[in-house]
Amino acid sequence: MIKVVTILGARPQFIKAGSVSREFGAHENIQEVIIHTGQHYDANMSDIFFDEMKIPKPDYFLGIGGNSHGAMTGQMIEKIEAVLLTEQPDWVLVYGDTNSTLAGAIAASKLHIKVAHIEAGLRSFNMNMPEEVNRILTDRISSILFCPTQTAINNLQSEGVDKWQTQVSLSGDVMQDGAIFYKELAEKPIDLEINGEFVLSTIHRAENTDSTTRLTAIVESLNVIAESTPIVLPLHPRTKAKLEALPIKLSPAVKVIAPVGYLNMVWLIDNCKLVMTDSGGLQKEAFFFAKPCITLRDETEWVELIDHNFNILVGADKKAIIAAYNEHVFSSDFNVDLYGNGLASSNIINALIKYEK
Ligand code: UDP
């Protein structure tokens, strides 16, 4: 029996766990224990994903959220360590690049428990992003790195992974697994009045929400684009608070809705005309559902989308955003395998079983 403690805390991790935990459930010789750190705790940022995606209810809820990075990460390390001492797992599994990811990896590695990192090797090369710091540190102390792409492996190799005594595995992307599985279950958001074409947008990254200049430019751009095509904007709680404090307001043609669950989100992605976002995951999902994507950031970890012209980086520059929407000709041949064939979760679990033998 292999015992795995999975650390979850933020929305994108719940979505990834939707695929990986389902696969764990299919293996009798693996026991998964889930710790939810509480980083995202609102019902529509957390519970809905566990319910809809049938993720097993967390065995431990740590209730740590809404604090500074240092305080949050420190409290998480302490509380995760206590659980690991009780559970004594073979592995700690962490996803992506949040404070919960880093805290889980630190707590485990100090107890000499092996760490498996899903979505390893991604780099934005922007050390001002908290996510970049979390990724680099987590990769360095993991025992096995599950990379979604060859680019991620190349990044690790240029950092010297060959000397780290760490296994590197090209697993494919677990979000691709989820997109395939949940497409059949997609549901239109019940309260959304929309007929015909629309643009889907999300904004939540600190680099945009915490800069009045950037957030203002994004709001102005959305207002201009919404004059020709309605925009649906499921609003992250952090962005909601920042927008309320901004002198400029979103126009009524931008349909602001509360954050939605994954089944609604998949419907929105599958039915929109184009995606405009600063989300990491949504850039890939746009590709999975054959939609062009305008990325409201200065760099991206998902460089293959840019290289193939499925995605364009525009930062928070009003002119560039509007020009990308009106003028950019995106590639329309989405028949390219960039993220694996939807078997990433089973690749990951097979690699963990093989490692133990
Ligand atoms: N998402 C969702 N509901 C929403 C907004 C986003 O289910 O209202 C999903 C989205 O489809 C993607 C994930 O949340 O799978 C992305 O999370 P987020 O943008 O918060 O984080 P990032 O991917 O940037 O780390």
Could you please describe the fold and organization of this structure?
- There is one protein chain.
- The protein is an alpha/beta fold and 357 residues long.
- The chain has two domains: 2-173 and 340-356, Rossmann fold (3-Layer(aba) Sandwich); 199-327, Glycogen Phosphorylase B (Rossmann fold).
- 44% of the residues lie in helices and 16% in strands.
- It contains 15 helices and 13 strands.
- Strands 3-2-1-4-5-6-7 form a seven-stranded parallel β-sheet, with helices on both faces. It has a six-stranded parallel β-sheet with strand order 10-9-8-11-12-13, sandwiched between helices.
- Helix 3 (69-87) packs across helix 4 (99-110), helix 4 packs parallel to helix 5 (130-140) and helix 7 (174-183) crosses helix 12 (280-288).
- The relative contact order is 0.13.
- Uridine-5'-diphosphate (UDP) binds next to helix 1, helix 11 and helix 12.
CATH architectural arrangement of the largest domain: 3-Layer(aba) Sandwich
Radius of gyration: 20 Å
Strand content: 15-25%
Give, in spatial order, the strands making up the sheet with the most strands: 3-2-1-4-5-6-7
Shape: globular
What is the CATH top level name of the largest domain? Alpha Beta
What is the secondary structure topology, with strand pairs?
Elements: E1 2-8, H1 11-25, E2 30-36, H2 47-52, E3 60-61, H3 69-87, E4 91-95, H4 99-110, E5 114-118, H5 130-140, E6 144-147, H6 150-158, E7 167-170, H7 174-183, E8 199-202, H8 206-209, H9 212-226, E9 231-234, H10 237-244, E10 254-257, H11 262-271, E11 274-277, H12 280-288, E12 293-295, H13 303-307, E13 311-313, H14 318-327, H15 344-356
Parallel strand pairs: 1-2, 1-4, 2-3, 4-5, 5-6, 6-7, 8-9, 8-11, 9-10, 11-12, 12-13
Bound molecules: uridine-5'-diphosphate.
